[in-house]
């Protein structure tokens, strides 16, 4: 029996503003339009999408619906991710052990003059000679040849996995004795690099950096610093870019060598520093700031006859050394003035007093010391400062010195050198003389091994440290290559699919995958996909794990302990590798896992948005949990509620537990829509790391489809499961792992579908066994001789494979042959609406589609089809919208149109499929169809402008505008095609306000704490200016600049408000000028959730 579509679910109300008022007769006419449109769309859904057919199939297959256990999910994910992270920690531990052992026993028995090594910069590559500076040509025979081939595991960068290559900073001479010694005694690490990689082929770059600046990186690659070619990156210069890379200033090196620290930098700005002295001082302070990370806290004090904070709003505070705060310090230092005499006593007193306050707050003492430093940058000292140090820093009969003092004496002509040396030596520091600007970096870096000495002296614990998330494009070692490999066919294929999807109006957020570089004459306010000279670069977020390597040789036979740091060993871990282990298919729509660091910053989160309009944000890796989990608790901006603070504290403190029924504001569809819902949070620590893991499950996502051994069941029935995957009209989620070879090289597939077919064939062959990527190991002691994997070893997600086969079997009958509409009326309706495609997308990541024989939409002959554009269907707005709509009313459909799509837009109608099992339902799939906007518009105009309609209420009248709105106030249909996908409030603000006043929509305010303003270069006026962003207009109008301020510890959330400088917040930010709120976005939300669309008729002014 045909179920009539209940029209009230698709038409919310009729609203029209006419000079004569709202007439009952006209209201009846508009209601009739709505009923006709609704009935026809629902009839099409029944005849074309055929949801009942799919539901019947799921029922016939005895679909089981089970409740999700949040505790079980977080435990499974924690175990999966924990295994993977332990393997990475084992890898760096093995590198460290090998480096220490070989260095302890190493003797230089090689004859002088026979020294050669593989240089990333100067070795010949594939018989091509690199550019070698003229002053180094005499050493050309010292650089061994390299044979490199592109490797897909390393982003298609040419590498050689048989050995490592060496990089030496530009300001370090590679033939100096200390560097040669480091190169020689670390060459043995090639063996452990290979062992690590062959036992875990998912390992990314491995490396060892020495205190001399020597970097040994595996696999070997050529060091590229060439400019991006014109037409790709918009650069026109042909000069070689300078090589600025130095492993000693990378976060993985600094954090492992020095641990977290509090630092006060004293910068002399007295009159004697005028000229070159001030330039060297600024450069020195900047170089010191470059050695800090998110785990460090710092402030910069400038002193003459008085001492003042270079950033007034950071007065009397240590500030967390996030990239945005470091940038703020550097800007302030650039504007300091030199004048007067230097009062160093007052400067030291301010610095010691500030550090003492922080020690007391944290409970530091002789037994639990804090790592605190004062860095003095000056061209001279007035004399003896014994009383200052005796008062503030020499405790317990001079046996306890809580603060180390490092002194940097600037200039060639200096006096009282002995006094400034004395300051450093008697305060457990180090003295450095910086003669010229060129020496600055090398001299600054000398403090690092000194700070590491206490850790080296204990010679037992080697801390394993993890960095915060960072983008691979910020690594100078990879940055140029990541531009160059965009010409590879794999990267080009992905890019072309994205660009075509944008042209067709597919909802794609390219900022999740790409940064963009425009030609200098172009404007970032334009759509980059329409500009021919835009260069696109894929980026990935990484975290690095590293551990210090100690020099044990000096202490082998000596009574006097020598504390030398050899270097740091590390490896990179792509965040995507972690994401793949979080069971997204099981978490469901708007269910997700996220990871938080010891500072409360998100490492992994679906709302972490590092890039805006193709540009990497400055604060992208210091986004606090309270900035992405937005509660629906009525609080104002930067005033997080107790629930999210409790969750944050539990994650930071490595606790295990849950938090249920938390009201939240969920924004989706690229921040265009908002939903109010309740979530349950389940959290657990990730052992051995500073990270906490949590799982969020919405109140409507508590069930899922549970599948047994579907593969074995079909095999027992003599059914070939490969038959469920015939043809080319299906795709699987490219970001999920079904089955995969450990070694990608040698197992190249043209597509994930070809890879899946290969494993489906293997399933039916003798000897098949299910294996995991990382087997469970009860013994967590590093195994440096772990079994290496063979070329044909593979791993699978057994549960996901079973679910995929189950979905493929359920959907196969409906999509394995040509689709024909036999019903004459349905066929006519499909022609009228221009329906050209039907599809299904399942929770297992399977997407199928059919082209209807009634309509053929012209497409480019580029091989890019529906499945290529919607591979990640479960993340699409039309998928989420169908799930939402089914929960509100199972007998309704969801219509979705792209933002700013225009006349050539494609409209997607989708329906959620919820199989039932013992009164429980769960989302199994979304089924639907697509039609051109122009055909739906044509039907709309014919319906609203027919001869039988009222002369007054007729959408052909020039003084009437007709709209069809969705549940969030976005325009589905309008007479002006360029309004499609736009928010009604921006097109007809008065009408939208009227509907809000009548209760048809509820306004929801939500603050975007990751927003920022664009800085645009305008060639017409040849200057840079801040412009108003259409998305974040309010932020730009008040010129908000966010800067993170320090917490006293990662667990402290209460700090006083200092005038107009700060706003009370869990993790404080400073807002310049008088603007006291972050960017706010207004969303409209329908008043009654069971209704889907709104018809609006208004008078044109």
TrEMBL record:
* Keywords in alphabetical order: Calcium, Calcium channel, Calcium transport, Disulfide bond, Glycoprotein, Ion channel, Ion transport, Membrane, Metal-binding, Signal, Transmembrane, Transmembrane helix, Transport, Voltage-gated channel
How does the UniProt record describe the way this protein sits in the membrane? Single-pass type I membrane protein
Keyword hit for Ribosomal protein: no
Domain VWFA span(s) in chain numbering: 262-460
Gene3D superfamilies from the entry?
PAS domain (3.30.450.20), von Willebrand factor, type A domain (3.40.50.410)
UniProt subcellular location: Membrane
Annotated GO molecular function terms are: metal ion binding; voltage-gated calcium channel activity
Q: Does the keyword Cell cycle apply?
A: no
Q: Give the CC-aspect GO terms.
A: voltage-gated calcium channel complex
What domain of life is recorded for the organism? Eukaryota
N-terminal signal peptide: 1-24
Matching entries from InterPro entries are given as:
Ca_channel_alpha-2/delta, VDCC_a2/dsu, VWA_N, VWF_A, vWFA_dom_sf
Q: Please give the Pfam families that the UniProt record associates with this protein.
A: VGCC_alpha2 (PF08473), VWA_2 (PF13519), VWA_N (PF08399)
Q: What name does this protein carry?
A: Voltage-dependent calcium channel subunit alpha-2/delta-3 isoform X3
Biological source species = Bombus vosnesenskii
